[in-house]
Each structure stands twice: as structure tokens, then as C-alpha cells.
Amino acid sequence: MKYLLIVCFSILLIFQSYSQKIEYPPCQKKEVIDTFFNYLPVKDDYRWLENVENFEVQTWVKEQNKLFNKFIRSGTTKYRCKHDLDRYSCTETNYSAKHGKYYFSYKIRNGHASAGLYFGEKTDEVYDLLVDPNYNTNGKKKNIRGFSVSKDSQKLCYLTSEDGSDWMEARVINLPSGTKNKDLIQGIKYSTVKWYRDGFFYSKYPFNGKFSASEGEEVYYHKLGELQSQDKLIFKRKNPNASFSYKVSFNERFFVLEEEVSDHFNYFFIDYESEQPYLRPLLMKQAEELSFIDSNDGKFIVKTFLNNNCGSVVEIDPYAPYQWREIVPAHSDAILTKTRVKENCILCVFQTDHQPIIKMYDFNGKTLHTKPMPIASSVYGFDGPKNEENLVYYNECYTLPKIQYYFNINTFETKNGEKTHITYHYKNYEYKLLKYTTKDGTKVPLTLVYKKGLKLDGNNPTILKTYGGFGSISTPKFDPGIVYFIEQGGLFAYANIRGGGYLGFEWAEAGRRLNKQNSINDFNEAAEFLIAEKYTNPKKLAITGTSHGGLIVTAAAIQRPELYAAVIPIVAVTDMLRFEKFTVGSFHLDEFGTVKDSLDFLNLRQYSPLHNIKKELNYPAMLVMTSENDDRVPPFHSYKFVAALQNRSSQKNPILLRVEQNAGHGGANSKVTEVDSKSDMFRFIMKVLTN
């Protein structure tokens, strides 16, 4: 308790000079009470902020943005954050992927524009502009969200969205001319398109409102040249919460459909070489998800975590679906993250607790080649037709952008690709891979990055980050903000907490649903470890996370405010009692549970950040970042959280809201706005940690 009082007093002193000057925009409490199970009342004073189109709400948001801009531009200009971030962002990388006979790449024409889609016949000659989303936008900000090339490489279907929304429409162009077809498909959300002969499969949702629950998905087949109203319905369910995904094998013999319901998966397939090609059951009521990679010799090649923790590759005969043949066994110390089926081999990428490893196998499971990659890095790519011998892949880490390599799958020869140009000395940084032990005895991986020669004396500005949900494997991605922070004498730390998939299926389960508090505890104990081991101290520690990571950092700060000086949640989920009512919330009952179940409700109520704010506490300085058009995690999660924190007399440290305009869950959607957003975040961090 004595330590807690000292820490809280110290944090208060940091902000005493300017916290008294902050006058928050008024936000009226309008009491709403929900009663759960007939006897558990829960107040929701800021429910009215969910009506984001309301003039009063929009005015409040504008005033919050003004307040943040005033705060961030006041005081010292010591740190040339925006200038440096812009410089570190100026990397030249030839990142292209082969689809069919062509290579494709996204490129930005100017800093204010959305990326256009370019193509060429060689990986180092991707110069021809194919799709430019910056024309005929009717004042909207359009972005290309994905594309798919027909097997004969004569057609390309691309998806676009407006102002960051998850709602997309699909159009078709001819290759290589780029001329447009009349085909237009609307109502697409969370979907890809998969070509089959002279058309493609897609799924769509009915539009019931900007933030309404995503329910009623349907899968269709569109034949080129026909109207969307003529498309053939492939699959739907009466259960509005059923969701679907699908694949078409490279040889276009098989269509495979996955149905996910509350507690299991169902699989169906069409064999277009059979006498009666219709959708038929394959495997029903599977407890674990199967990832269909492709087919080989009339059988499915599938990635599975069934009866193993780290992932294996099996062969499934569609006409004897319960007789599986294992090809690539599960490793005990490495997670299977990527699988590519080629003509004569299977390419796999495994992730150990410190590095990725590329492995090649024949179809009998014999190891043909093994190539370890640098520690604390990511590897991806290997795109191209099944019969492609020469592949392109990329390697990157937190402080180094994509590096291109050429790889021959027959000779296993690796060659350097096109050079990557950067504007700083990347060899000046040191990586340290650690594990800290939690109070329940769990060893959690922690990656540290800092400048060589940094004095680790417990006084270093530090950013601790995480994601930790949905079994997602968080591997390093280049971030110019990390380079900037390290160059300012900071230390970056990433905790691979339970709930993510970094150490396998069991690791993910240990942070899911009723175990979500484990994820929060792991994160707080990462902070305790950094403090105890003299890497930093509570006055110098900032935390951040995006989406699910935003939930973790807000919950961590609400539960253990004495550990942190600054908190930056980005598009965070903060109201766990209403999350399932909007957009994707109903998809994630397996991850969080449902308020309709009493045990789930009590668990959600226990850690929901919005519902655990204490009236008497002065929480750390916070910059809550969201986007006005985020229709995955609606921005009112952030609005309500900020309003509840600001409207307390005990709050002395600044609580600020930054709302990105014309953007969705992915945040800023041009290079200029991305640098602006990142600059604001790091200026806030530096202002708090170095005050």
C-alpha cells in the first residue's frame, strides 16, 4: 500500500502543471438501467453516445478532438516526432505477389491518395497501374480491400470500401488490358471472392444499419455478365449467427464450405468431376476448425489442431472423410503458421518462441529442406500458382521493413531479391527474447527492442504492447513508430500473453472466455517484470494495444493503475456487456461468452473496462484512439469509456479522445493521415513519459 501511494503521488506530480488547465467538453449523464436475470441492475449513463449520428454526439466528438489538438500542441516542441516518423516511413520495398501469370503490388502515388493496384509480368517490373481507387469517389475515401485472379489470368475481381467501412463492393476487369466489365456485386462484408470457371463465389449480408449486428450471411455464385439479382444461392441458414468461409481448389475440381456455429464447425463440398456435382456433407459437428489448403490427387490437404497443440497437416479423402492420413506431424516446440501446397511438395512455416522456420515436405511427410529465419522476425509470401517453381517471400521485424528473397522449391536455393532502402542505421538495435513467470507459474514470452548501448537502469521510457486474443499469432511487423521511440532512448516490449496463439491451441484456450482474466493478469505481470528487472518504472511506462489488444490494456489499467503512466488503447472494446449486440460481436461468443449466460455475464462484468471504473481513483493519462466509421468495433465503445473517466472529480491525469475522420477499424487510410495519427500518439507518449 505504501508503494501504491508513492506511485500514485508521483504520477499526480507529473501532471500537476497542466492537468488543472484541462476543461473537458460537457457530457450529460442520462441514466439507463439494464436488469440482468431479473435481479442484477447495471447502469449505463452514456448509452446516448451510441447514437453517433446525433448532432449532440457529433458536437461532443468535435470538441474532444479540439481538446486533444490543443493539448498535444501545447508545451515543448523538443521532439520532432512527425518529421522523424515521416523519414522512417520512407522505405522503398518491392513487395509484390504472384497470382496467375502476373505479379501484383499496392503502391501509393502520393501521400494523400489511397494505394493503387499495379501489375507486371516480372516481380521487379510491376509498373502498370491497373486499379486506381482515387477517381470518381463522390467525396468518399475509397480503398482496395483485396483482389482475386481467375485461373486463366484473364479476369481480376477487386473489392473496395468507402471511408474505412467493412462493407465492400466487387467489380471485375479484364487482364491485361484493364478494361472494366459491367459486373457489380454489393453487400459484401468479411468476405473474399473465389473464382470458379466463368464466375466466382462470394458471401453477403443484409444491411440493417451502420452498427447493427452482422447476421444472416448468405453464400452465392455470380456468373460473369449477369446481374447480382440473378446470382445462384449456394448456402444459407435459419440461424442468423452462422458464418461461412469457402475455398476452391487450384484445379477447380472442389468447392469446400465451412459453417461455424456457436460451438462447432460443419464442412460441405462440391466435386465438379462427379456425375452429380451438388453440395454434400463432408465432416459435421467438428469441435476444432479445419483449414483446407488445397487438394492433391483427389484428396484434401488440411491443416488441423485436432488432438494436437501446434498444428499438423493431414490428407482427407472426401469419400472416406474419417480416414485421415497424417503428412506433417505436429511439432512440440513450434506452431504451424502457414502452409502452401505445390505440385511435388508442401511448404510450411513454423513459429518457435523466438523465430520462424521454413520447411519443405514431400506428400509422404519426408522433410526435404529446413531453413531457420532471423530471431524476432516474420516471414510470409510464397504466393503463386501450384506449379510455380520460383517463389518470392519476405522477411521483416519491428525495426526493419520487408526484405525480399527468391526461393526455388526444387533446388531450395535462396537468392536476395530487390534491395530495400531505409533512412536509418538498422544495425544499431538490440533484440532480447525473454520469458517471465506469472504468479500461477506460467512462462510468458516477452520481446524487448532497444538501441545498443542503452543503459538499463530502470529509468527508460518504455512502451509495452500486446494483442492476446482469438488465438492470433502476433509476429513482428515493421513500425516506424518503434524506430522513432527507440531513437529517442526508449525501450519497446511486446508480451505474447495467453489468449493469443503464439504457443499453440492450449495457449489460446487459456485466455479465452472464462479465462480472459488470465490475459489481463499476464499483461500486468509483464509490467511488473519490466519494473522489477530495472528496465523501467511506473512513471516511464506506457501501454498500448489495438482492437482486442485495446481491451487488454484498458482492463489492465483499470485494474492496476499504479503500474502505468500512459495508456493508449486503439479501436478498443470497452463495453463487454453490449459488445455482442453490434457488428461482429455475435461472431465472438466463443471468445468472450454471452450476457445471456449467467456465468459468462458475471465474468464479463468483472473485467469489462467501462463497468469497473472506480469513482475515487486517478487513472493514468490516457489517449483513447478510435475511428468514426469503425463498423467492427463501433467508436462509441471509446466515447462511453472516455466520458465515464472524464466525468469524475478525482481524475487529475488527462483523459483524451482522438477520433480519426473518414476511417474504419484499420485507422488512417493514407500515408499522410497515418503519419499524423502515429505522430499524435508518440507525441502524447513522449509528453507524458518525459515531462
Structure, explained:
With 691 residues, this protein is an alpha+beta fold. Among the domains are: 32-86 and 432-690, Alpha/Beta hydrolase fold, catalytic domain (Rossmann fold, 3-Layer(aba) Sandwich); 331-421. It is built from eleven helices and 38 strands. Strand 33 (462-465), helix 4 (480-487) and strand 34 (491-495) form a beta-alpha-beta unit. The chain is globular, with a radius of gyration of 25 Å.
Task: List strands and helices in order, with pairings.
Blueprint: H1 2-19, E1 33-36, E2 40-43, H2 55-73, H3 81-89, E3 97-99, E4 102-107, E5 116-120, E6 128-131, E7 142-149, E8 155-162, E9 167-174, E10 180-189, E11 194-196, E12 199-204, E13 218-223, E14 232-235, E15 243-248, E16 254-260, E17 265-271, E18 280-286, E19 290-296, E20 299-304, E21 312-317, E22 320-328, E23 335-341, E24 346-351, E25 356-361, E26 367-372, E27 378-381, E28 390-397, E29 400-408, E30 414-416, E31 429-437, E32 443-451, E33 462-465, H4 480-487, E34 491-495, H5 505-509, H6 516-532, E35 541-546, H7 548-559, E36 566-570, H8 589-592, H9 598-607, E37 621-627, H10 636-646, E38 655-660, H11 671-689
Parallel strand pairs: 33-34, 33-35, 35-36, 36-37, 37-38
Antiparallel strand pairs: 1-2, 3-4, 4-5, 5-6, 7-8, 8-9, 9-10, 11-12, 12-13, 13-14, 15-16, 16-17, 17-18, 19-20, 20-21, 21-22, 23-24, 24-25, 25-26, 27-28, 28-29, 29-30, 31-32, 32-34
Helix pairs in contact: 3-4, 3-11, 6-7
